[in-house]
Amino acid sequence: MTRKRSNAPIFWALFGAGGALAALVGPVLVFITGIVTPIGMWMPQSVLSYERVLAFSQHWAGKAALFVVVSLFFWHAAHRIFHSLHDVGIHAGTAAKLLCYGSALLGTVIAAAALLSIGF
Amino acid sequence: MTVRKPYVRPMTEWWRRNPFFVRYMLRELTAPFVAVYAVILLIGLVSLSRGEAAYNVWLSALTHPASIVLHWLLLVTITYHAVTLWKVIPKTMPPVKLGGRALPENAITVCGCLATLVVSIVIFLLVGHL
Q: Taking residues A33-47, what's their average pLDDT?
């Protein structure tokens, strides 16, 4: 006898992991990539130079970090948005579920493809 | 033809009636901002994979004043996400016993916020000095 198992724990785990990661490194990453480096204050603009970021993304650890941050941020946001739909009066049905988690999956696949095409 | 005209409680903006639900909605509203930042980083990754010229277009877009304003907004909302996450964590985990007494929820929240602070400082120094 086989029982149909819920897929909810998988999405919840991705949501939790992404939420914790966003809480730990989200603010400082936004601060570095979006505020201080572009302004050139406290952080030289060369920090995000092509050579430097390329070298980081070619290292296995840098590649893994970039993939984990981008994909888990997507899964966290997708799950939370999906579960908030009802609160704003939108029916959280199959179509909404496919759209939310499908977007996260698409983001994950594009991130993986980009990182793989950069090479090692 | 129906004679009854039942009262239907209006549910539009239901959350505005209670400050607890206002905070709940603000917390849930942080998700789209996390998604926006993920999209910005993803565009950066795709540009990086397309070579130096494409990457530099993404890099120069980040210096646009509108981008700086957007990132300040992202900083505020994602920091709010971090604080609310550390507030929820003690409610989702089994009670932590210390010397026979349950660790207060506040202590776990403060530890979480400190963890974010320490990790932030470490990353900031690593990025600047490596």
A: 92
Domains of chain B: 14-129 (1.20.1300.10)
Q: How many CB pairs under 8 A join A and B?
A: 152
- pLDDT over 80 at B2, yes or no: no
CATH no. for residue A37?
1.20.1300.10
Cβ distance of B48 and A53 shorter than 8 Å: yes
Q: Is residue A45 part of a domain?
A: yes
Count of domains forming chain A: 1
Distance of CA B51 to the CA centre of its chain: 31
Backbone φ and ψ for A4, nearest 5 degrees, come out as: -70, 120
What is the span of the domain harbouring residue A24? 12-118
What ipTM describes this predicted complex?
0.94
Residues of A whose CB is below 8 A from B31: 76-77, 80-81, 84
The predicted-structure confidence for B90-130, as pLDDT tens digits, reads as follows 999 888 888 888 889 999 999 999 999 999 999 999 998 76
A26 CB neighbours in chain B (<8 A) are 34, 37, 78-79, 81-82
pLDDT band for B1, please (50, 70, 90 cuts): low
Give just the sign of the alpha carbon dihedral B123, B61, B70, A44: positive
H runs (alpha helix) in chain A: 8-30, 37-39, 50-58, 60-84, 94-118
Name the residue facing B116 among A24, A35, A37 (closest C-beta): A24
C-alpha closest to that of A110 among B55, B48, B59: B48
Residue A39 lies in a domain: yes
